[in-house]
Amino acid sequence: MKILLVEDDANLREVTQRSLEKERYVVEIAADYRTALQKIEDYDYDCILLDIMLPDGSGLDLLEKLKKMHKRENVIILSAKDSIEDKVLGLDLGADDYLPKPFHLVELNARIKSVIRRHQQGGENSIKYGNIEIFPDKYGVTVAGKKIELNRKEYDILVYFMNRPGRLVNKNTLAESVWGDHIDQVDNFDFIYAQIKNLRKRLKEAGATPELKAVYGFGYKMVVE
């Protein structure tokens, strides 16, 4: 899962980023409006944590930009401005939740899981496709009811495709979502091919009905034959 943290307070930004990375999220940061806008224009995220009061603009304006771009990111507003007007305006502009500062990191993590579960899992505690079932809260995976062991990136790749069954995914988009936007700096995608190869082998050995199909020259898609 890939998160964008938009926060101008350096200490809060660092503490929050470390906490979320311990929860196995890919976390990218933006300290101001300009950087945040550039990132949401260039990349997709599973969740955006958005401060309202930024040094060079308003987080509410970023919400409006998201709406105009027809992007579907989950948005949680994190703000010291705890007025009813701000909450209502933020939710009207498309925010999914509103968490006033100061907040507990445990609660923030619970809120993130909640909005992702509502939007990507239909409110369910697991993700199912074919005979594969993923339990995100426990980072568990079963095939036909039997647990299988995956490394972290294999798991992240599987979650990404399970949330997009049958959809053709460009290898660049996959890399950015699972490894973060610094992926732009790499020379090739050999590491992705290796992880995909290992994941496909593990799923096949476990008897999974969904299969990761390579589409030459573009990327991959998960389908049930």
UniProtKB/TrEMBL annotation:
Q: Residues where 4-aspartylphosphate occurs?
A: 51
Name the DNA-binding stretches.
124-224
**Domain OmpR/PhoB-type as annotated: residue spans:** 124-224
Q: Which organism is it from?
A: Phocaeicola dorei CL02T12C06
Q: What is this protein called?
A: Response regulatory domain-containing protein
A GO BP term here is: regulation of DNA-templated transcription
Q: Name one GO cellular component term.
A: cytosol
| Pfam families given in the database record | Response_reg, Trans_reg_C
- What one GO molecular function would you report for this record? phosphorelay response regulator activity
So which domain of life are we looking at?
Answer: Bacteria
Give start-end ranges for the coiled-coil region(s): none
Q: Where is the Response regulatory domain?
A: 2-116
Q: Keywords, A to Z?
A: DNA-binding, Phosphoprotein, Transcription, Transcription regulation, Two-component regulatory system
